[in-house]
Amino acid sequence: MTDHLPHFVSDAPFDPVATKQLSPEQEKFYLASQWKMMWWRFLSHKLALVAGVILLLSYLSIFVSEVLAPYNLHSRNTDFIYAPPQGIHLFHDGALKAPFVYPQKYTLNMETLKREYADDTSNPQSIRFFCSGDPYKFWGLFDASFHLVCAPDNGTLFLFGTDRLGRDMFSRLIYGARISLTVGLLGITISFVLGITIGGMAGYFGGWVDSSVQRVIEILRSLPELPLWLALSAALPANWSPVWIYLGITIILGLLDWPGLARAVRSKLLALREEDYAVAARLMGAPPTHIISRHLLPNFMSHLIASATLSVPSMILGETALSFLGLGLRPPITSWGVLLAEAQNIEAVALYPWLMTPMLPVIVVVLAFNFLGDGLRDAADPYD
Fold it and tell me: In this predicted structure, what is the pLDDT of residue 327?
């Protein structure tokens, strides 16, 4: 008769990490969540990281536009119409000084009737920081006059020159960012609500629902985008207030951007709805809205975030183009597109090229969104 060997069973809970004897670095990697791994991969994408910092600073600036701008949005300097940009200097006669500018003096050319400005290098004027300047109503709530940077006493500070009414272009660019940047965010919100809802229904239910949605998307995608933008923008009543015009342009941009996202959501849901966890939830009696929102959408939410960052630039460019053509936002609202409308006259551009400076923030923001989108897409791709 064979003696049985004693059998011992450990009462301690099973710890797969301890049994594999992972190093602290391996343990940190294997136990990390999906979002944490995406964050690590994004940090390795240096260009996307720089773009993210630029966008973060840009959007933070819209909360304090009044403080950052040297002048009030509507301040006019009638003695300095079409004044060129003033340079900031640190050295005068070989000596280091606090940041200063040289005052500008102009003469009227009687042959061309053009104002010709020249710097008075004999009289440097120090720039003021954390100072009291043009009064303003902060977010329309209370009166204030505090500015981060102010013009010298009895002097001027036109970093990007002035326009035909003597208004500081740099200050107007800062104020315009509040409108141009938020148009993209509000538009993408409308686009995402429509795209996820309609695309989710088409991908989950299939059948005639999917066919109907696809036909609507094909019709919308077959229409020329720019003429459709122009037609809808021209249909907005001219007597609407600036706020309603702003909301109308935002809704138009959002309504025309959802078909592409809806198709992406539909294709993902067609594949994910057959996964075991989705089938199990359906057999347990979970309603379709619960399955889509709690089980299907989170599995490709990272791709939706990357898609959002790539869609916002198109909306910013759309608002800029419509305002430039005079069919978008109109004064007294100030956006980058409205500022570019001042540069429609080729003669004005040739004589006063600083009127084209609103192109610079548009280019920087659009490139930053594209680089950020590429970084997020690479970070969210599990097969890269």
Answer: 72
Q: State the DSSP code for 162.
A: B
pLDDT of residue 115: 82
Whole-number pLDDT of residue 269: 84
Q: What angle do CA 291, 257, 292 make, to 5 degrees?
A: 0
Give residue for tokens 């686009």. 191
What CA–CA distance (Å, rounded) separates 81 from 267?
56
3-class DSSP state of 180: helix
Measure the CA–CA gap between 204 and 267, rounded to whole angstroms: 10
- Kindly give the parts of the chain with pLDDT less than 70: 1-30, 32, 34, 381-384
The reported pLDDT for the residue numbered 377 is: 80
Is residue 334 a contact partner of residue 179, using CB atoms and an 8 Å limit? yes
Provide CB contacts within 8 A for 150, sequence distance 6+: 70, 127, 128, 129, 131, 132, 133, 157
150 phi, psi to nearest 5 deg: -130, 160
Helices (H) and strands (E) in the chain, counts: 16, 7
pLDDT score of 4: 61
- The pTM of this model reads 0.81
Tokens at residue 33, please? 């969540």
Strand partners of residue 131: 147
